[in-house]
Structure to design on (327 residues):
C-alpha cells in the first residue's frame, strides 16, 4: 500500500512538473532591413509567448501596429503600404523545439535548440526554422533567436524604385524572459 | 524662359520642403489629442472580448482614455515605459506603452490610474489572459 501511495505521489509530481508552462506578455521582436541606402529598424515589445517544455511547443503572437520605428513616417508606410496592418493586424508563430529534451528547465544552464514552425503575417503562412538559445536559471528562461525571412515570401511587395531603401531580406531577432505560468 | 526656370525652382523647393517635413514628422502621440472615448479598462476589454473585429474597427488608431487599477509600470528593453492596468481580473489587462521620454509612474500596484493612448488592438489568449494594447500613451491623472 505504501509503495502504491509513493508511486502515486511520484506520478502526480511528475505530471505537475510537466504541466508547467512558461510565458511572457512582454517579448521583444526586432526587425532590421539593411538596404544599400538605408537601414531600417523597428521594435515591438509586446509579443505574447508561451513555451511548453514538456512538448516543446512554442507560440508567439503580436500586433503588427506594435512595432515602433525611430521615424514616424517609416512606421506609417510599414503599416499602410507594406504590412497592410488594418487588414492583417496580427503576426504569429506556431511551432516547437525539434528536440524538446534539448532544454532541461529543471537544471540551470544555457541550451541551444532548433525551433521549427509556421510564421503567419500579412495573411501568408510560411515555415521558418532557427537555432535558439535558452538560458535557464533563477526561475525563468531567457530566450534569444535570430533568423531571416524574405518579404516577398509573405506577399509584401517592395517596389523596384525602393529596393535600394528596403531590403527584401529582413532580419528578425526575438528576445524574451519567460516565467512560470501559475494556474 | 527665366520665369519658367524660377517657377520650376520654386516647385522643387516646395517639394523638398514637404519631403523634409514628412521625413521629420514627429510621432503622433495621445498627449496632443482629446480622447475619442473615456472608459474603464474592464469595459474596454469586455467590448473587445465580446466582438473583437467590430471593436477593433471602432477603436483602432483612436485615442482612448482608460482608468483602472495599476498592476505594474516599468521600462521595457527599449526604454519605453509600459503601464499595465487590471481589466476585470489579474489575468486580463490593458497595456499602454507610454510615449518616448515618459517617466515611470511611481504609484504602487492597486492604485487607480488614468492613462490615454492610441489603440493598437487586441491580443486574445485563453491561457495567458487577454490584453488590449495602446501605445504613444500618457498618464492623465492618478486618483486614490
Amino acid at each position: 500500500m505504501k509503495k502504491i501511495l509513493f508511486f502515486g505521489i511520484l506520478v502526480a509530481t511528475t505530471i505537475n512538473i510537466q504541466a508547467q508552462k512558461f510565458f511572457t506578455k512582454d517579448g521583444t521582436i526586432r526587425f532590421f532591413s539593411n538596404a544599400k541606402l538605408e537601414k531600417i529598424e523597428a521594435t515591438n515589445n509586446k509579443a505574447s509567448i508561451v513555451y511548453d517544455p514538456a512538448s516543446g511547443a512554442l507560440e508567439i503572437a503580436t500586433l503588427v501596429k506594435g512595432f515602433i520605428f525611430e521615424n514616424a513616417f517609416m512606421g506609417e508606410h510599414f503599416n499602410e503600404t507594406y504590412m497592410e496592418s488594418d487588414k492583417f493586424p496580427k503576426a504569429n508563430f506556431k511551432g516547437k523545439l525539434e528536440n524538446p529534451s534539448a532544454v532541461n528547465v529543471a537544471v540551470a544552464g544555457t541550451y541551444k535548440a532548433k525551433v521549427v514552425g509556421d510564421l503567419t503575417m500579412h495573411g501568408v503562412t510560411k515555415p521558418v526554422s532557427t537555432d535558439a538559445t535558452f538560458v535557464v536559471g533563477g526561475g525563468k528562461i531567457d530566450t534569444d533567436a535570430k533568423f531571416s525571412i524574405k518579404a516577398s515570401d509573405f506577399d509584401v511587395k517592395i517596389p523596384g524604385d525602393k529596393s535600394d531603401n528596403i531590403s527584401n531580406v529582413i532580419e528578425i531577432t526575438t528576445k524574451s524572459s519567460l516565467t512560470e505560468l501559475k494556474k | 524662359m527665366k520665369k519658367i526656370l524660377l517657377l520650376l525652382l520654386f516647385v522643387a523647393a516646395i517639394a523638398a520642403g514637404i519631403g523634409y517635413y514628412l521625413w521629420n514628422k514627429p510621432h503622433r502621440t495621445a498627449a496632443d489629442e482629446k480622447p475619442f472615448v473615456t472608459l474603464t479598462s474592464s469595459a474596454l476589454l469586455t467590448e473587445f472580448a465580446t466582438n473583437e473585429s467590430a471593436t477593433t474597427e471602432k477603436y483602432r488608431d483612436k485615442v482612448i482614455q482608460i482608468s483602472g487599477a495599476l498592476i505594474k509600470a516599468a521600462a521595457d528593453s527599449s526604454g519605453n515605459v509600459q503601464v499595465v492596468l487590471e481589466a476585470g481580473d489579474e489575468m486580463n489587462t490593458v497595456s499602454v506603452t507610454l510615449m518616448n521620454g515618459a517617466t515611470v509612474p511611481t504609484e504602487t500596484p492597486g492604485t487607480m490610474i488614468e492613462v490615454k493612448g492610441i489603440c493598437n488592438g487586441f491580443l486574445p489568449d485563453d491561457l495567458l489572459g487577454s490584453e488590449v494594447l495602446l501605445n504613444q500613451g500618457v498618464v492623465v491623472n492618478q486618483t486614490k
